[in-house]
Design brief:
This protein is an alpha/beta fold and 262 residues long. It has 8 helices and 9 strands. Helix 1 packs across helix 7, helix 5 crosses helix 6 and helix 7 packs antiparallel against helix 8. The longest helix has 17 residues. InterPro entries: HMP/HMP-P_kinase_dom, PM/HMP-P_kinase-1, Ribokinase-like.
Length: 262
């Protein structure tokens, strides 16, 4: 039976990140993708030009439409944009109680444009985090959530992952001075490192969206959380390694979500 994965996030009209990247990652890895749009984002490989948040009643209506009709095997949450949307999604999770929820705390786009209002970080941390099964921050996002300096070593990554107090897949791609890109899973009292060589490409737009959607996909398919993270990292590594075969935009291009099929 093909599993159904729901992504709740903002859009990317050039297809590299957000809802579009999630749908590609879910589909490429064998599940059926569904979506709830929280914001329509005019962005390209060079930056974000405009953001239009969806009305709260429309976000609620989309979520209700999905859960009232379709079995949801896992949920991935991406861009929420503000505290009101964060609380709206948290209320929906409390209502429908999906068993597997992956939160990618999208705060800043690859271009540096901020996608989550700084005043909304508290709502994300205090209202939504307790309801999710895994959070997938990068180092700047983890530091933002904790109100501390960005980790610069594996030891600090461990300390910050533990301080988040929810199952965490902490992405080490920003770790300076390393040819490796180590990620850390801190869950169920255990620490697991996922090693990988840093891939030299500027075309890394949407990596966080893609990874978290892939984790939700494999987890929803019945894999353990550890195995889902392992498979998702392998998938992202492959998508990054083939990113330069695409010709999308003049800035930070997207990863190649369907590299296995070309």
């Amino acid at each position: 039976m093909i599993t159904n994965i729901l992504t709740i996030a903002g859009t990317d009209c050039t297809g590299g990140a957000g809802i579009q990247a999630d749908i590609k990652a879910i589909s490429a890895n064998g599940s059926y993708a569904m979506s709830v749009i929280t914001a329509v984002v005019a962005q390209n490989t060079q930056g974000v030009q405009k953001i239009q948040m969806m009305p709260l009643e429309m976000i609620r209506a989309q979520i209700d439409s999905v859960f009232s009709d379709v079995q949801v095997d896992a949920v991935k949450i991406g861009m929420l944009g503000n505290a009101q949307v964060t609380e709206c999604v948290a209320q929906a999770l409390a209502k429908y109680q999906p068993s597997k929820v992956v939160l990618d705390p999208v705060m800043v786009a690859k271009s540096g444009d901020r996608l989550l209002d700084a005043d909304s970080v508290a709502a994300l941390r205090d209202v939504l985090l307790p309801q999710v099964g895994l959070i997938t921050p990068n180092l700047p996002e983890a530091a933002d959530l904790l109100g501390t300096a960005e980790a610069t070593s594996r030891e600090q990554m461990i300390e910050q992952a533990q301080r988040l107090q929810v199952p965490t897949f902490l992405k080490g791609g920003h770790l300076a001075g390393s040819e490796q890109s180590p990620d850390l899973l801190c869950a169920e009292g255990e620490l697991s490192w996922f090693e990988g060589e840093r891939i030299n490409t500027k075309n890394s737009h949407g990596t966080g969206c893609t990874l978290s959607a892939a984790i939700a996909t494999f987890w929803g398919q019945g894999d353990s959380l550890y195995t889902a993270c392992d498979k998702a990292k392998q998938y992202l590594t492959g998508a990054l390694s083939k990113a330069d075969t695409l010709n999308v935009g003049q800035g930070h291009g997207p990863v190649h979500h369907f590299y296995k099929y070309y």
